[in-house]
């Protein structure tokens, strides 16, 4: 799955929304149960993916089973390949280029952390529990951890009066509200910004995070991280680029779709130059993070669903 020529291969009008996330797992049922129990995700469907189009898209042979969950308006799928790849690498740090999490917004951090703590299987990244960052770093309270497979996650609570409107509205509906963003570690902020701008994203904000709270959040010493927020056209989860300036980083490793570390972001786009070009595309960003681009009216290749209790409008 090579880094492709974005200018030539992508739609003219660019990406419209970040539609969903996809996690590779050796056991989709077990992992999905963890997300339902610990983070209150709901089951949307159980499906079977297979066929030559799916193989080409994923760059691997053999099919996969998928369990699709939702939280708020956001969608996450758990993909279990018939031919599993490598497990999540041991001893990775928040500054390693394979690092990618999505942030789950909670209405109350104390209660959210308490609910998570009551479920077994996860491991902490952050030290000393949830960390309230200074105003210069957004003033949020956050806690990073890993799910039972090793995928990084974050609980995120906004400061009183600082929550974006969509989270203020959703806070009346429960404790776990939805997914705010996906954060990815990058080697060079400007290189990654240029790549995502070519896809149609725009820079929405930048900050430089440092201090003892950031150290404890990331489990790093003297962390200095450039944070760049990138937004798409629609109001959906955004992307945050994390460029660590002081921490050691492992060399870039290109993971295959069937490797557990290959988290995918699925984007929908309009304005494709031809019907042929509307076929789903898989690509890697400059640091090896997996992306998929589909037409707004298209779906990823799949076989017939073996069970589907999902809601309309899910595009996977």
Verbal overview:
The protein has helices spanning 6-9, 28-39, 52-58, 109-117, 165-170, 189-199, 212-218, and strands at residues 15-24, 42-49, 64-71, 74-81, 100-106, 123-124, 131-132, 141-146, 152-157, 176-185, 202-210, 224-231, 238-244, 264-269, 281-284, 290-295. It has 316 residues and is an alpha+beta fold. It folds into two domains: 6-85 and 262-295, 2,3-Dihydroxybiphenyl 1,2-Dioxygenase, domain 1; 100-244, 2,3-Dihydroxybiphenyl 1,2-Dioxygenase, domain 1, CATH 3.10.180.10. It starts with 5 loop residues before the first helix and ends in a 21-residue tail after the last strand. Mean pLDDT is 87; it is low at 1-8 and 301-316.
Describe the secondary structure blueprint for this structure.
Blueprint: H1 6-9, E1 15-24, H2 28-39, E2 42-49, H3 52-58, E3 64-71, E4 74-81, E5 100-106, H4 109-117, E6 123-124, E7 131-132, E8 141-146, E9 152-157, H5 165-170, E10 176-185, H6 189-199, E11 202-210, H7 212-218, E12 224-231, E13 238-244, E14 264-269, E15 281-284, E16 290-295
Parallel strand pairs: 1-4, 5-9, 10-13, 14-16
Antiparallel strand pairs: 1-14, 2-3, 3-4, 5-10, 6-8, 7-8, 8-9, 11-12, 12-13, 15-16
Please describe the biggest sheet, giving its number of strands, its sense, and whether it closes into a barrel: 9 strands, mixed
As for the CATH topology of the largest domain, it is 2,3-Dihydroxybiphenyl 1,2-Dioxygenase, domain 1
Total strands: the figure is 16
Which runs of at least 5 residues are low in confidence (pLDDT < 50)?
1-8, 301-316
> Compute the gyration radius: what is it?
18 Å
Order of helices and strands: HEHEHEEEHEEEEHEHEHEEEEE
Terminal residue distance? 19 Å
| Shape verdict | globular
**CATH 2nd-level architecture of the largest domain:** Roll
Query: What's the average pLDDT?
Result: 87
Q: What share of residues are in beta strands?
A: 25-35%
Total separate domains: 2
What is the CATH class of the largest domain? Alpha Beta
| SS field, number of helical segments | 7
- Helical/strand content category: alpha+beta
The percentage helix is 10-25%
- CATH superfamily label of the largest domain: 2,3-Dihydroxybiphenyl 1,2-Dioxygenase, domain 1
């Amino acid at each position: 799955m090579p880094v492709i020529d974005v200018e030539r291969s992508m739609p003219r009008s660019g990406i419209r929304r970040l539609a969903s996330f996809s996690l590779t797992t050796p056991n989709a049922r077990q992992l999905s149960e963890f997300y339902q129990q610990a983070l209150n995700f709901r089951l949307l469907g159980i499906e079977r993916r297979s066929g030559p189009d799916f193989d080409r898209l994923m760059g691997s042979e053999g099919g996969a089973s998928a369990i699709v969950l939702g939280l708020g308006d956001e969608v996450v799928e758990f993909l279990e390949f018939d031919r599993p790849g490598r497990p999540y690498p041991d001893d990775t740090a928040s500054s390693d280029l394979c690092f990618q999490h999505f942030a789950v917004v909670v209405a109350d951090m104390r209660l959210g952390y308490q609910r998570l703590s009551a479920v077994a299987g996860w491991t902490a990244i952050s030290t000393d529990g949830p960390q309230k960052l200074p105003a210069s770093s957004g003033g949020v309270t956050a806690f990073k951890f890993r799910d039972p497979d090793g995928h990084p996650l974050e609980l995120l609570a906004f400061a009183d009066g600082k929550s974006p409107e969509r989270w203020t509205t959703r806070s009346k509906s429960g404790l776990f509200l939805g997914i705010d963003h996906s954060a990815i570690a990058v080697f060079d902020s400007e290189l990654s910004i240029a790549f995502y701008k070519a896809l149609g994203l725009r820079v929405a904000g930048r900050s430089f995070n440092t201090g003892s709270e950031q150290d404890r959040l990331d489990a790093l010493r003297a962390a200095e991280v450039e944070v760049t927020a990138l937004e798409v056209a629609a109001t959906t989860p955004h992307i945050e680029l994390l460029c660590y300036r002081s921490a050691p980083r492992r060399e870039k490793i290109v993971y295959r779709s069937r490797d557990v570390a290959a988290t995918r972001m699925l984007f929908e786009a309009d304005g494709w130059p031809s019907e042929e070009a509307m076929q789903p595309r898989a690509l890697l960003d400059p640091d090896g993070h997996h992306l998929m681009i589909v037409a707004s009216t298209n779906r990823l290749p799949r076989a017939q669903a073996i069970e589907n209790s999902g809601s309309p409008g899910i595009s996977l």
